[in-house]
């Protein structure tokens, strides 16, 4: 049985039209010049800033990396631009941390499904419970894309280039944690990010 909190959160999602209004203010968490709001990993060889974009590039051993925000969030919306680079792109946005009670919004090729699953939620140990709609027609393989992901309670919603593509509820979701950008291990790849912003709801 759903908790009262989960039910209220779901109803809020409907009423708010999943964040398409302008009743929240986005805060820039990457401005093109520094990573002051992020926990840069020790011995960083994966993340660099060039041309006002944040570049993620695999290391020679393909160990991968996750760039986490210093701050933890509860209900929020995060928006960023991304552009595919070279190799097999397998990236994503971690929504409140990394464990079996968290959702990662996929960007690029799924390692398990061997096809593009951009905008779809990935849940550790559970895979992809739903698939984002209409991504093939929306995704710009050679240009910049804008993705927005929102979570309120245990509900998640995603837009790609201005179009709604995904809506999902994860029962017993973790309700607080940092936001992370993924450079998947075991891949040779590059991806760029820019205009990263977040709003607490």
Q: Helical proportion?
A: under 10%
CATH fold-type name:
Jelly Rolls
Sequence of secondary-structure elements: HEEEEEEEEEHEEEEE
Low-pLDDT segments, ≥5 res: 13-20
- The pLDDT mean sits at 92
CATH second-level architecture: Sandwich
How would you describe the overall organization of this protein?
The model is unreliable at 13-20 (pLDDT under 50). It is globular, with a radius of gyration of 16 Å. It has one domain (4-200): Jelly Rolls. By secondary structure, it is mainly beta. The protein has helices at 4-15, 135-138; strands at 27-30, 38-39, 47-50, 53-57, 65-73, 76-87, 90-95, 103-108, 121-122, 145-152, 155-160, 163-169, 177-183, 189-200. It contains two helices and 14 strands, in the order αβββββββββαβββββ. Strands 1, 3, 4, 6, 10, 11, 12 and 14 form an eight-stranded antiparallel beta sheet that branches. The chain has a six-stranded antiparallel beta sheet with strand order 2-5-13-7-8-9, with no helix packed on it. Helix content is 8%, strand content 45%. The two termini are 25 Å apart.
């Amino acid at each position: 049985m759903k908790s009262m909190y989960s039910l209220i959160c779901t109803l809020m999602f409907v009423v708010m039209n999943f964040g398409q209004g302008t009743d929240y203010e986005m805060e820039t968490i990457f401005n093109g010049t520094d990573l002051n709001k992020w926990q840069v990993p020790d011995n960083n060889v994966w993340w660099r800033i060039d041309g006002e974009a944040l570049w993620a590039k695999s290391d020679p051993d393909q160990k991968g990396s996750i760039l986490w925000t210093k701050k933890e969030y509860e209900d929020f919306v995060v928006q960023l631009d991304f552009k595919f680079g070279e190799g097999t792109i397998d990236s994503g946005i971690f929504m409140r941390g990394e464990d079996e009670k968290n959702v990662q919004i996929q960007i690029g090729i799924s390692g398990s499904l061997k096809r593009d699953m951009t905008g779809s939620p990935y849940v550790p140990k559970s895979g992809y419970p739903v698939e984002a709609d209409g991504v093939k027609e929306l995704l710009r393989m050679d240009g910049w894309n804008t993705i927005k992901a929102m979570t309120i309670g245990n509900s998640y919603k995603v837009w790609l280039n201005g179009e709604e593509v995904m809506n999902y509820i994860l029962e017993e979701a973790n309700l607080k944690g940092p936001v992370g950008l993924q450079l998947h291990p075991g891949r040779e790849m590059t991806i760029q990010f820019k205009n990263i912003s977040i709003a607490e709801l």
